[in-house]
């Protein structure tokens, strides 16, 4: 079942066009037929929605920030969060009307570096710094997640995968 934000219209989606958001990508749409989907482990997906313009989008990043002064590229949240916000603005969204969902950040294997926790902390701090309200999140744990977003309506559905450790 899709989570329905209070401010979003309640009309049903007909014949969805499913677009997969892969690592290192950000996609934005205002088309009510579009549904964005991704699968996450330690990665993070940020979903943004502006109910005043009926525009939304999703990104999928692998790591928070580069270490040691290396250049930022499409695998890092530091880059993809900016890309998502800028794409939203290009589609007619306004920064004060944006609302966020965050998903992912699992620590998939015990005893290994807690990349998921670092990713989740980065994404949460980024939204706070940008003053974008976080209205829904599912972060941490040790389970993979599948996230579907209907960007024009701000509707999100989360499914947890069975843990197989």
Task: Give a description of the structure.
The chain has 165 residues and is α+β, with helices and mostly antiparallel strands. Helix content is 18%, strand content 33%. It has 2 helices and 9 strands, in the order βββββαβαβββ. Strands 2-5-4-6-7 form a 5-stranded mixed sheet. Helix 2 (115-130) links the parallel strand 6 (98-104) and strand 7 (134-139). The relative contact order is 0.25.
Task: Please bin the fraction of helical residues.
Answer: 10-25%
Q: How many strands appear in the DSSP assignment?
A: 9
**What composes the largest sheet?**
5 strands, mixed
List the quaternary state of the chains. single chain
Mean pLDDT: 88
Radius of gyration: 15 Å
Q: Give the spatial strand order of the biggest sheet.
A: 2-5-4-6-7
The computed structural class is alpha+beta
How many helices does DSSP assign? Answer: 2
Précis, in short:
The chain is an alpha+beta fold. It has 2 helices and 9 strands.
Topology:
Layout: E1 17-20, E2 25-29, E3 34-40, E4 44-50, E5 55-60, H1 77-90, E6 98-104, H2 115-130, E7 134-139, E8 145-150, E9 155-160
Which features characterize this protein?
165 residues, 33% strand, alpha+beta, 18% helix, 9 strands
């Amino acid at each position: 079942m899709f989570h329905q934000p209070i401010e979003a219209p309640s009309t049903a989606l007909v014949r969805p066009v499913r677009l997969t958001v892969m690592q290192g990508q950000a996609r934005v749409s205002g088309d009510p037929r579009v549904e964005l989907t991704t699968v996450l482990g330690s990665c993070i997906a940020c979903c943004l929605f502006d109910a005043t313009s009926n525009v939304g989008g999703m990104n999928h990043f692998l790591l928070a920030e580069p270490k040691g002064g290396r250049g930022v590229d499409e695998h890092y949240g530091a880059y993809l969060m900016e890309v998502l916000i800028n794409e939203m603005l290009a589609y007619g969204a306004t920064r004060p009307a944006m609302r966020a969902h965050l998903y992912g950040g699992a620590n998939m294997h015990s005893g290994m570096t807690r990349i998921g926790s670092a990713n989740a902390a980065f994404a949460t701090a980024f939204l706070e710094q940008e003053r974008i309200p976080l209205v829904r999140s599912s972060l941490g744990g040790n389970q993979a997640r599948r996230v579907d977003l209907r960007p024009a309506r701000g509707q999100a559905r989360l499914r947890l995968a069975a843990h197989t450790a």
